[in-house]
Amino acid sequence: xxxxxxxxxxxRLLQIREEQTVAERFRDYFRKMSEFVRMLNELRxxxxxxxxxxxxLSELEVWNDRLYGDIxxxxxxxxxxxxxxxxxxxxxxxxxxxxxxxxxxxxxxVYVFEERTEYLDILFELLVQIYNQFEEAELxxxxxxxxxxxxxxxxxxxxxxxxxxxxxxxxxxxxxIDIIENAELTDIRYLYFFGExxxxxxxxxxxxxxxxxxxxxQRMADVYTEGYRVGFVNTGKDLSKKSTxxxxxxxxxxxxxxxxxxxxxxxxxxxxxxRSSVSVIAKRQHIRTGYYGAIANKQYxxxxxxxxxxxxxxxxVERKLEVMRTAFEQFKELASGHAGPACIDMFGEKPxxxxxxxxxxxxxxxxEELSLFYTDKSGQITNxxxxxxxxxxxxxxxxxxxxxSRYGEIFDEIVKINTLDARIYETVQQTLIDALDKGxxxxxxxxxxxxxxxxxxxxxxxxSSKETxxxxxxxxxxxxxxxxxxxxxxxxxxxxLHVSKVYLNELQYQDLEIEFANGMIADYNCxxxxxxxxxKAYIRDNIMHRHPTLPLGEFAIGTNTTAYAAAxxxxxxxxLPILIAEKMGPHFAVGDTCYHWSxxxxxxxxxxxxxxxxxxxxxxxxxxxASKAYFHCHTDITIPYEExxxxxxxxxxxxxxxxxxxxxxxxxxxxxxxxxxxxxQR
Length: 682
Description:
Elements: H1 2-15, H2 24-48, H3 57-68, H4 73-76, H5 83-90, H6 92-105, H7 108-113, H8 117-136, H9 142-155, H10 157-169, H11 175-182, H12 200-211, H13 214-234, E1 244-249, H14 254-266, E2 270-272, H15 298-303, H16 314-330, H17 332-336, E3 338-347, H18 365-385, E4 394-399, H19 407-418, H20 422-436, E5 439-446, E6 453-457, E7 467-468, E8 471-473, E9 483-486, E10 489-504, E11 507-517, E12 520-525, H21 532-542, E13 552-558, H22 561-570, H23 578-581, E14 586-591, E15 610-611, H24 626-629, E16 634-638, E17 644-651, E18 656-661, E19 664-665, H25 675-681
Parallel strand pairs: 1-2, 1-3, 3-4, 7-15
Antiparallel strand pairs: 5-6, 5-17, 6-10, 8-9, 9-13, 10-11, 11-12, 13-14, 14-16, 17-18, 18-19
């Protein structure tokens, strides 16, 4: 029946090319949609006959350009995928709807590669339903079209959303794993078998890894998987109870991932590798979770991050949450065995600062409230079936070739940084912690134009011989080594956090300033746009995640001056991911603490002291109502050493202990951290 539906609906869509039954202003749009379906049908035949994997590299590149060329920056200005262009041609209501439809149909590309014919049927039938309405009237009723979209999202939520949950925890979903384990990785044609957009970054990354020795590849895989294992050990969680691990990465890194799969299997963990979602029903704005290739156009992704606003209401939220509960209940054994994600991030692309467009779909205030409600409830459901106090994670990052002409050198330097001797850092960082544990609060003061002036209130120890405030981070879940961190006491934490330029979650912020009052964000602004309202909206959407306020969930001091020196040497400071950048100065995370969902698990530093500062007055509300305790976001913001005047610990007796001054470590016993900085100046 699925195949029969496909044949019927495809035949109907191909006829649109020759028809003139809709108003002339809309004909080109629907003809292009018909041509898109024809192209996908051709691709599907090519894949099913086994011809696609026999194509030459140049032929595969042609296919890749055919599939993704329309949304590339050079073509995007006059693409129906661009809401601004669609609204210009069709008016705001029709333009937004048709641009959404054009974008949603593009998800069919990956469904063809994964041979999900039912998904193709669903999408193609949606297109026909909307096309029919344009046939019936020169200007069809907008309400009717939106209703069609609403029922598409609601009716098929139990397909797209339920399948999404299963593929996140089920090792039997083997599309990506089969390619990684069975392809000839020295032949980079394999990259095109995933169905993702492939750029020079993915090709050259794979080529570079192919030039590395087997020993180096094994070393990179070992750091990654051992960090994951040690994360369970350090938090007292039982890895033997788990059976699966989710591997998330960007294409091009398959040679390391293949070795990592072998390492995880030796730990008793089967890999789960799922694609970043492409459907508005299952994805979360423009955020990528899973594996993916190049982002063909970040502005395109940003323009469509709130497309769910066309149908998002309370009824849909309740429907999706019910589907989520049902799916987790159905697959609860798989869920209970899931150990959490192991992530390989890539960095080095040109920083992206989006254009804010009036033509895009925006959530209403009520929809924003519903979105927060959904995020909270879905997080609670997930935690019920995959308890936070039983799972862990690890993260490591490497550069892409776009980072510059010295890519090979930079890559080798990052490998060195990711494998630094943790024992040296453990000793030096403990010296910092011993001083911090004496403090009532810490005062951070910016310099060289940085306006930071922030007081961070610290947890009060009951027994300093057995307890500690800060965690000594020695490269387990959070690679590379190089920070001490805590959950600050909110009450008494006040002041301004300022950074001249920072790159967060793939978005660039200029002159970012956040004000805290009793540990909660009281105000914020940046200098990305001319209008203050746009700057505030940019932060509210992407740092605040639409919450009216967020707590300061983490205060940390980064100690990895080796990474800092490397960043300066190669001029890549603004391209580094937060994973490395947070180790290059003091950083502050807004949102949940590092211990969310697992505050009650006892955690110890290598010296045996228990870390007792794991919650704040907001996260403590979990005992009454988890919806008031967690925000489901955690964004780290780092002040680089050169923008730092001082970090001072102030004791109860008002003694001042200076840790850093003018970007240098001055606390006795930490001077070794300045060596990379001195070498940088020579």
